[in-house]
Amino acid sequence: MPEATATDRGRQVRQRLRVAASELVPELGWAGVSTRLLAQRAGVAPGLVHYHFSSLHALLREAVLEVMRELLGQLATRLEQTDSLDAGLDVILGSVGACTDRDPTSLLFAEAYLAAARDEQMREALAALLTDLRRTVAHWLNRHSHPTPDHTALVLAAALDGLLLHRALDPGLTPARVAPVLRRLLHLHGDE
Question: What is the rounded average pLDDT of the residues 11-29?
């Protein structure tokens, strides 16, 4: 087996740093992650953090956005495979149903939103992800002949975010509790 090149080793270190960051942000909060802790978790020397990334915040941003993109990509794939509005709503609510008030994914999303309030690059990146999510949901709604796919996608995306954030404060707020209201929304066929 050929020996890894310097480029391959660099990619591996960058990936280990991103994975460590995506684990530490939910555990400690955005501000609680230090270069030393991050390097220790990734099993690399602290100097490699700044060798591979322009700053600790750039690394945290990249790591968190990578996780969020992957999760939203999985949601898009699953939505594309649905054969009805109800099945799609089940997919959307199922993605939230796995989240609790203290699970790493929910905490990561909450930390990302908080960071975006103070970091313009993070805000722009999250806004782009949100636009992609809305576009995905609107495409799914349109594919199932929903009369107002764009506007309904806005509401569903906001409901999804709200449900994630509210569950941190009210673990009893389950997808099952909001499903009937969202199902009615999907089946409204009147004027806007």
Answer: 95
